[in-house]
Amino acid sequence: SNTAVMAVSVGIFGLFLAAIFTRRGAVIFSSRILVLTGFISFPLYLIHENAMVALTIQAHALGELLPAGLTPLPGLIVVVLISYLIAAYLEPNLRRRLSLRLRIVTPTESS
Questions:
Q1: How far apart (Å, rounded) are the C-alpha atoms in residues 48 and 108?
Q2: CB count in 10 Å sphere of residue 21
């Protein structure tokens, strides 16, 4: 219902305010697991859907080795690890290499 959506929205907004304006909120939101989640969130967003589906299907094919409720777990672990590698190594290295090779031309230089 709209009331439930509004209540959740206000609650989430309150969490953001707490993180910004209170010491305790800042401590909670600077915990290692939340910082790590924020660090890998964009690469995880980019690769999660197709990779998770494919890896879950592969895990399900293992049959009796893994209970049905745990079939997404291996894929989740792999996707999180790949996201970390992208965020920690690939993206900074690519950004550095591109910044060395590319030069932004300003309007005064083009004439």
A1: 43
A2: 9
Cα 62 from Cα 73, distance rounded (Å): 13
Q: Which of 32, 42, 31, 34 is nearest to 92 (CA)?
A: 42
- The structure tokens listed for 84 are 């970390």
Q: How far apart are CA 70 and CA 49, in angstroms?
A: 17
DSSP 106: P
Longest alpha-carbon distance in the chain: 69
E-strand spans in the chain?
none
Residue type, 67: P
What is the tens place of the pLDDT at every residue in 50-96? 899 999 888 888 777 888 888 889 899 999 999 999 999 999 999 88
pTM: 0.71
